[in-house]
Recover the amino acids of this structure.
């Protein structure tokens, strides 16, 4: 019996489909009536732990889940000790710097020194601006980061962009890109070393079906 | 024209009612169809900024909102420079230490040294355990903190308790209390000093109706 940490939200449906293709049926977690946070697979061989996006690497790094599915953006932001096993190919998006379309800035390096940058991903943002050697004041927000430039609190944001619709709807444009992101299969390093074969079998099946997909 | 930051979620309905009683009608934010994050009051004298709980003190401390309504728990956790103006009396709950009912621990000080404590409020938890002189390993979670003890990742949690139903449903019991919380009216200190009377009038009306309520 092993445990898989699944992120609630945008990645959940694809995560459940992927496990279904390798023989683990967690589709109960998708039922609108489901309120359980721990759901056994139909075969009883594994269970799913339904947690927030940012909590997946926490449960995997402490070994409470042996495997997990989470966006690369979350792994980059939190830097927890988990093994990054397979790029699953879904949940693709990119981390971008965006500004008001009317601001005139054309790249991150053209932003004024010490300007304010709002983000949910302040660690990623800090690393990026240090790399381009531009001192900025980071403002950590928990949601609706696009309000930063709209209210005038921040000159720029660093945020995940999937379709770009939120940016467009709010009169913002991308001026730089930090990295691409997609869903990753992660594992608890010690559990992988002590594995009797069960985890390896699942990981290999996922690798195979990801390559052929 | 001034701006009021309102927290989405549990406090929103009571916040809107309170402003309505002092003459500012933001009830549009409660419409299920509302997708706007900035909503003008019916009279046009103010606007509401609809943000996450934890972002209310951010917008108020930067002066993008002159007033805000947010739980005392969030103010304690983030310690941002906002003026704590009125205890609004609604949204009451308390911050507690809870453990599995079967664990046998009867108070926070009986927890083993260096045990793991999961919380969304790690700053509050850190201050509390330092005060009682018990070294613990804090695990920051973003949601469903009750999974910490259930999965065996943490021996205790520090979390907000309103009705206690979540704890009971998950076989957890409170063993200590950090503080009581309720919704607070907060203000941007500089805006309050530069106020031409508009903010003061609203604050006084809220104080009066909170006292008589």
């Amino acid at each position: 019996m092993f445990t898989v940490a699944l992120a609630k939200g945008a990645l959940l449906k694809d995560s459940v489909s992927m496990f279904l293709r390798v023989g683990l049926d967690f589709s109960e977690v998708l039922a609108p009536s489901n309120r359980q946070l721990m759901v056994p697979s139909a075969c009883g061989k594994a269970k799913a732990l339904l947690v927030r996006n940012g909590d997946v690497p926490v449960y995997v790094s402490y070994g409470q889940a042996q495997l997990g599915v989470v966006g690369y953006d979350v792994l980059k932001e939190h830097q927890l000790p988990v093994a990054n096993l397979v790029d699953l190919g879904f949940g693709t998006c990119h981390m971008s710097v965006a500004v008001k379309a009317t601001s005139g800035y054309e790249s991150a390096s053209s932003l004024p020194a010490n300007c304010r940058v709002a983000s949910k991903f302040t660690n990623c943002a800090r690393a990026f601006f240090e790399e381009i050697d531009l001192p900025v004041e980071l403002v950590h927000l928990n949601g609706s980061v696009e309000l930063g430039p709209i209210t005038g609190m921040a000159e720029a944001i660093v945020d995940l962009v999937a379709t770009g619709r939120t940016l467009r709807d709010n009169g913002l444009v991308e001026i730089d890109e930090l990295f691409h992101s997609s869903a990753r299969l992660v594992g608890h390093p010690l559990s992988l070393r002590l594995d009797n074969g069960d985890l390896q079998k699942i990981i290999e099946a996922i690798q195979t079906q990801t390559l052929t997909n």
